[in-house]
Amino acid sequence: MAVAIVRNVRPWGGAAADVVIDGTRIREVRPASPAAAGTDGESVDGRGLLALPGFVNAHAHVDKSWWGRPWVPYGGEPTTQGRIAHERAERGPLGLPSVDGATAVLREFLRHGTTATRTHVDVDLGVGLRGIEVVREAVDRLDGAVDVEIVAFPQDGVMRRPGVLDLLDAAAAAGAASIGGLDPAGIDRDPVAQLDGLFAIAERRGVGLDIHLHDRGELGAFQFELIIDRTLRAGLQGRVTISHGFALGELPEPRRLELLDRFAEAGISWATVAPPATAPLPWREMAARGIGIGLGTDGIRDLWSPFGDGDMLGIALGFARLHGARTDGDLTAAVALASAQASPFVHRDLHDLAAGAPADLVLLDAENVPDALVRGPRRALVIAGGRVVARDGDVLL
After folding, report:
1. Are 115 and 60 in contact (CB under 8 A)?
2. Residue 117 in 3-state DSSP?
3. Strand partners for 296
């Protein structure tokens, strides 16, 4: 159902307001009108519920999921290389990547209020570009209700697999918004060659870069420096993201602060899934320097992990716990990282409850934003692009 106005909601827990929608965008947020509430096909009664912008999942892998199939036990070696090998051995028998699996995950995103996502999609010698085709078909099945930005991702390495750079170039030429990288030192063992190859494609095709970096300590820091140098040299400020980047929280403070200043200069952003066993990020110092931080689910029910339900409020809660957030301001900031503050990760200039923003809203029965974060109540209503797409936990598409 297309919506023209959502009456009587509390944006970010503030005063009651009406959100006026013009097509797929918010035209105005104004004080609540005394007009009779109710649903007339275009007007939705918000019943005084808390309103948030649609959530943004800044780091997903929707092509990998076996969601909708019988339970798949976790197996293989619990290392990055072990997970890669296990996935390569088992994805074929499971029929991965699959349109049904990707569609199921995107439906869970909608159920929980996520209306936009950046998803890494495997591009390798085994599947070629088929994963990208699968994800695009899943997006079409849902009539574009989830805005999906694709990162062509070399999960099996780059330089150690001759031909992968050509596939990444082809993916960029075919419309992928970004290309990815993976542990230039730890996986390829040739960080200079991997990064030179990736940055050359990004410059030639005008796409972004989003590089998975699991390597720890000084090995990770060394690769941070290589990425910073190449970003500045290529003029790609604002178009490069480091995903995971566990080393940042492990470094001594003087070294960490020096790197943060350089990240800010290079306009490099950060995507994290806030794993509980990792070192906290210096997120306040990052925010003070204007370094963008996005939260994501990573993979969901796939051959890397049996966990995940697509709920970005749950990810924001994990981030808050990992970083010792307690105050209302910090708890609200964690939710903003999963919504309004994540707009650059899906190439949106504005993603909020404000005039000109996409008409993406989530209504929850909560007293305020910290209450919503801590309790994670069911999403009472999800509006994406001006359409009601989910109600009381049921996806309507």
Report:
1. no
2. strand
3. none
Q: What angle do CA 144, 240, 134 make, to 5 degrees?
A: 30
CATH class of the region 5-53+353-395: mainly beta
In DSSP notation, 275-308 reads -TTSPPP-HHHHHHTT--EEE--B--SSSS-S--
Q: What is the pLDDT of residues 322-361, one digit of tens each?
A: 999 999 999 999 999 999 999 999 999 999 999 999 999 9
Q: What is the dihedral of CA 165, 139, 58, 268, to 10 degrees?
A: 40
pTM value is 0.96
**Domain 55-346, CATH 3.20.20.140 — does that match?**
yes
Q: What is the separation, in whole angstroms, between the first and last Cα of the chain?
A: 10
Beta bridge mates, 28? 20
Residue-level length of the chain: 397
**Distance of alpha carbon 29 from alpha carbon 367, whole angstroms:** 20
Cα separation values, 94 from 65, 102, 270, 372, 374, Å? 10, 13, 32, 37, 36
Tell me whether residue 153 is exposed, middle or buried, using C-beta atoms within 10 angstroms of its C-beta: 0 to 12, 13 to 18, 19 or more.
buried
Cα separations in angstroms, 145 against 242, 322, 377, 386: 27, 31, 22, 10
pLDDT tens-digit map of 29-41:
999 987 644 444 5
Domain edges within the chain: 5-53+353-395, 55-346
| Residue-level pLDDT at 94 | 95
Per residue in 175-234, pLDDT tens? 999 999 999 999 999 999 999 999 999 999 999 999 999 999 999 999 999 999 999 999
pLDDT of residue 35: 66
Instruction: Answer whether the bond into residue 97 is a cis peptide, omega within 30°.
Output: yes
DSSP H helical segments within 79-148, as ranges? 80-90, 99-111, 130-141
Task: Give the pLDDT confidence score for residue 38 in this predicted structure.
Answer: 44
Q: Are 5 and 18 in contact (CB under 8 A)?
A: yes
Do the domains 5-53+353-395 and 55-346 sit in the same CATH topology, yes or no?
no
| Max Cα-Cα span within the chain | 66
Q: How confident is the model at residue 1 (pLDDT cuts 50, 70, 90)?
A: confident
Nearest-angstrom CA–CA distance, 376 and 200: 43
| Helix or strand (DSSP H, E) at 208 | strand 208-213
